[in-house]
Amino acid sequence: MAKTHTQDYSIRRGKLSKDSPLVYRTRNGKQHSYTPKESSVPPSKAQKAHRKLFGKVTSIVNAIMADPQQAAEWNERRIAYNKTLISDPYAKRYKTTRSYVHFVISSQLEQKEAAKRRRKPIAKALPKGLKLNVKHFAELSTTELYELLKARFIVFYAEQNCRYLDLDDIDYKAIHLALHRQGRVIAYARIFPSDNPKQWFLGRLLSLERGQGLAHYIVEQAEAVATQQGATELALHAQTQVAAFYEKLHYQPEGNIFIEADIPHVLMKKELSECKK
Question: How many CB atoms lie within 10 A of CB 151?
Fold first, then answer.
């Protein structure tokens, strides 16, 4: 509500003119005038989609909780899920069945909604001024290392508010792919071998200039490099909100949704034989 004054005071002090629209209220025996509340900014397309999704989740959760049998089954799933997190003291545990059901249903619906989004343009060729560097850790200069770590900090820590140890020692055995413009990292990813020599992992994928297909370009280059290293499969832990992006690149989800760095993830894999020409 706007600031309140008596009508005479408002006009006398120039806060309102005689032609100003007023809303009158009587309080403590005196009449007061209010300036009407300004119309709020209409919600954006993303806000409307979020509200619609939240409504769907709420209705599904209410239906589940209204059925005692389903509620009991979900409570058992919640207890089993919390037990799997015993080794991780920082993982989020769900104290109520409703909160756990809401988490699972919202993650599933978000993944389905993301699959319907419009496909972003794909970079057929690198824009002018961009250079791709593919190097092992030992080959990185101090400046290159600083810039790629800065880019990871900007995206994962500052933007996504992820509180985890980004420097996890995997960088030592990884191959780093970075798109540079005048020395600054614009897009980045790393790949590294798993216990299975035929399977490599893709991680830390980011793009500071979104909507240009740079992330798609980096993934394609990562697949080519992994193939050169003898890998036949590339796996990754995808945030559920961007799983649709990897599905367009023919990655298939496996297993259940899990929490990593307080964000829902899903394991996705792709046979690199599909990449060979």
Answer: 21
Q: Which of 210, 191, 201, 204 is nearest to 151 (CA)?
A: 204
Q: Which positions ≥6 away from 196 have C-beta within 8 Å?
A: none
- Per the structure, how many domains does the chain have? 3
The CB-side HSE value for 157 (13 A sphere, CA atoms) comes to: 11
Q: Give the model's pLDDT for residue 119.
A: 42
Q: CA 222 to CA 134: how far, in whole Å?
A: 9
The string of DSSP letters for 175-213 reads EEEEEEETTEEEEEEEEEE-SSTTEEEEEEEEESSTTSS
Rounded to the nearest 5 degrees, what angle is found at the Cα of 81, between the Cα atoms of 253 and 156? 55
Nearest-5° angle of CA 130, CA 209, CA 128?
A: 25
Q: How far apart are the first and last CA of the chain?
A: 65
**Residue 121 three-state SS:** coil
pTM of the model: 0.55
In this predicted structure, what is the pLDDT of residue 124?
Answer: 53
Q: Give residue 110's pLDDT.
A: 80
Sheet harboring 233-239: ordered strands across?
A: 130-136, 175-181, 184-193, 199-207, 233-239, 263-271, 252-260
Checking if the pLDDT of 157 tops 50, the result is: yes
Residues 253 and 138 in one domain: yes
* Distance in angstroms (rounded) separating the CA atoms of residues 20 and 274: 69
Q: Which domain holds residue 153?
A: 130-275
Same domain, 135 and 232: yes
